Amino acid sequence: MQVGVEIGGTFTDLVWVDEEGVVSVGKVPSTPSQVHKAVENAVDQAAVRLKEVTRFSHGSTIATNALITRRGARTGLLTTKGFRDITEIGLHDRVGNIYTAFYHKPRAPVERRFIREIPERIDGCGNVVEALDEEVAQQEIQFLLDNGVTSIAICLLHAYRNGVHEDRLRELILSMSPTTRVGCSSRVSPEFREYERTVTTVVNSFVSPVVVDYVDRLDRGLTDRGCRSGLQIMQSNGGIMPAEAAGDNAVRMLLSGPAAGVQAAAWFARRNGINDIITIDMGGTSTDVAVAPMLEPRVVQELMVDDLPIRTTALDMVTVGAGGGSIAALDSGGFLNVGPASAGAEPGPACYGRGGKLPTVTDAQLIAGLLRPSHFFAGKMTLDVGAAKDAFTSLKVPGDLRHKADAVLQMVNSNMAAAVRLVSTARGIDPRDFTLVAYGGGGPLHAATVADEVGMNRVLVPWSPGITSAFGLLIADLKVDFIKARLQPLTAESLAEIGVADLAATCDGYAASLGLAAGGYDVQMGLDLRYAGQGFELTVWTDVARASPSELRDVFESLHRERYGYTRPNLPVQIVNARARLTRKNKLNVVTPKGDPGRNGKRETCDIVLQGKSVAATFMDRSDLDFGETITGPVILEEPTTTTLVPPGWTARCCESGDLLLEKK
User: What is the model's pTM?
Assistant: First the structure.
C-alpha cells in the first residue's frame, strides 16, 4: 500500500493505492496556519490504514511560500573578505519589464548587517592561497548568534573547487551552537557563478528551518498514527528523496507539487497513446505550465523564484498568478488585473463563506454560471452566490455582474495562454502539434478556451484531474542529482580528469545509505557543455566514460541547433560541470477505477456567459459518459475534484481508459 499527498494553496489532495493496485482519493481544505494538519485530515477522511503503508510520498509548496512571503529563518551569511556585497550587486539584469521606471532589483533574504567577511582565499584551481583566520571567524559567528541568527549560509570564493574552508567554518559554528542550521555552498550548489551560488545557498538556509520543522511535525504525526514506512519528499526535478535529506536540500523542494503533476500528466498521456504534451495545472493560487516532447519533461539547471536565480535541477515550468483564489482588481492605470495576489485557503474566495470579501476567479466562475453552487466539491461545499456577487459589485469595470465575471475569466485565459507560449513558441516548439493535458481544480474548466487561443486542437483531461499532482507522487521514481564543477576545454585529457569515477562512487555511496542493493538503481552521467565565450551551457546526458570528445561535441551541437537554431563549428567547446543522476524506478502497478459510466443521470440546461456571449449549456455528471461516447459542446461536466468545460465547437469523448479527450471540430 502506497500513499501520495500534495498540499496546494486551497486544497490538500491524497491518493492511495491498495494491495490490488486500485487507487482511491481524498481531498480536504488546506490549513495554512498548521500545514501538516491538512495531511492528517486527508489521511483520516480517506481512512488510510497507515500501519500497512510501505511508502508515503509528499509534495508541498512550503519552501516556495516561505521564500515568497519572506517568512523563513533569520539568516546570516559568511563570505570571503572583500566579497560582502555580491548579493547587493547582483547581475544588473532587469527582471521582467525593462521599461519600469521605478524598478527595484530582487533582494536575497539576508540583511546586509548579517553578511560577515572572513579572511581566507582559495584560487580558481582549488589551491589554498590564504589560510582561514579562525579567530576572526569565531568573532563573526558569535556576532550572528548574539543577534538572533538561527541559520547560517557559508559561501566562500571558489569553494566549488575546494570546500575545506567551508567545512571548517561549519565545524566552528556547530561547536559554538549545535542547534543552528548551517548550509555550505560546496554542498548546496557546487558551481561557479558567485552571485547565483550565493543566492542559492542563502535561500536554502532561509527556508531550511521552516522545511525541517514542517517535515519533522508531519513525520512525527504519521509515526504516532502507526506509519512506519518513512516519509518521502518530491523534488523540483520530478523525483523523490528521503525526508531526512530535505533540510540540507530545501531548495530542491521549490517546485515540489507542480513537478509531481507533470510526471502524472505524462503517465496519463502514455496510456492514451499520446506522445507530445503541454501540461496546464491550475490550482488555488497559481497555474503551472510545462512542456514534455515525447513525454520527457524538459529539465533546467536554474529556476527563478521571486525573481531570484536558484541553481538547482528542476523541470522547466512557467508559473503565472492565475488560480481559483487569484484576486481581480484594477491597477494604478485603471486596467483590470487578475493575480498574483490570492485569497488562498483562508479566507479563500468570497463564495466559500469564510470571510473573503474580494472578487476572485472562483467567484467569477460561479457568477458566469460555469459552477453550480450545490454541485461544487461533490456537494461537500455549497457556494455562496450572494457573497460572490457582493465581492464583484466592488469591481469597477463596465457591464453587469455576469459580464464582469466573464471579463475576469477572459483575462485569466489570456494569462494562461501567454504561459503556454513561453514554454512552446518561445522555445522553438509549435504548440499546435501538441496535446494540452489539463488538471488541477481549475485546469479543465479553462483548458479548451486556452487551447483555442494558442491554436491547439486537443485537450486530455485525466481521470480525477483535481488530484493529478498527488497521483504523480505515487508513480514518481527516486531521483537524486549530483554535480561537480570542472571548467576546462573539451579534450581527451580533460575527460580523463573530470572525475566521472568519483561521481559514480558518490552515487553508489548514497544508494548504499538508502539500503539499495547493487543493480537496484541506475546511474546516468552527463556534462554541461558550452561554446567558449558563451554565458550559459547545455546539459548533455550520455555515456561520458566511453564517448570521445568529437562524439560529445556532435551531441552538443545537435542539441544547440535544436534549441537555438544554429551552431558554431569554428569555436572550441568547454566542459563546465560534470553531472550524475541516481534513479530507482518505481515499478508500482496502478489501476485507476473506471467506475460505472453511462448511468444516464439527470442532464440540465442552464445559461452561462462565455467569452462575452450568453449561451445555453448542458450540465451533466462526468460519470454519465459511457466509454467511447462523444458529446458536443457547450457542455459542462461535473465531478468531485473539478469541472470540465466543453465550449461550442468542441467535442468530448470518454476514452477506454476513463480519461476525457476534448477535440476541436
Answer: 0.86
Greatest alpha-carbon span in the chain: 80
Residue pLDDT, tens place only, 80-133: 999 999 999 988 877 766 777 777 888 899 999 999 999 999 998 899 999 999
Burial of 298-315, coded b for 16+ CB within 10 Å and e otherwise, reads: bbebbbebbebbbbbbbb
C-alpha distances (whole Å) from 272 to each of 201, 219, 227, 447, 650 are 42, 36, 35, 18, 19
Q: Quick check: helix, strand or coil at residue 268? A: helix
Residues near 471 by beta carbon (within 8 Å), at least 6 away in sequence: 4, 15, 23, 260, 264, 267, 462, 464
Give the DSSP per-residue string, 308-330.
Answer: EEE-S-EE-EEEES-STTEEEEE
pLDDT at 230 over 80: no
Cα 30 from chain centre: 18
| Residue in the block written with cell 510501505 | 54
Parallel, antiparallel or unpaired: strands 522-531 and 458-461: unpaired
* CA 201/CA 161 separation, integer angstroms: 16
Mean pLDDT estimate for the chain: 88
Angle CA(306)–CA(469)–CA(216) in degrees, nearest 5? 70
Question: 4 and 16 in contact (C-beta within 8 Å)?
Answer: yes
437: which 3 cell numbers? Answer: 493535458
Q: Determine the Cα–Cα distance for residues 475 and 266; give it in Å rounded to an integer.
A: 11
For 503, phi and psi rounded to 5 degrees?
-65, -40
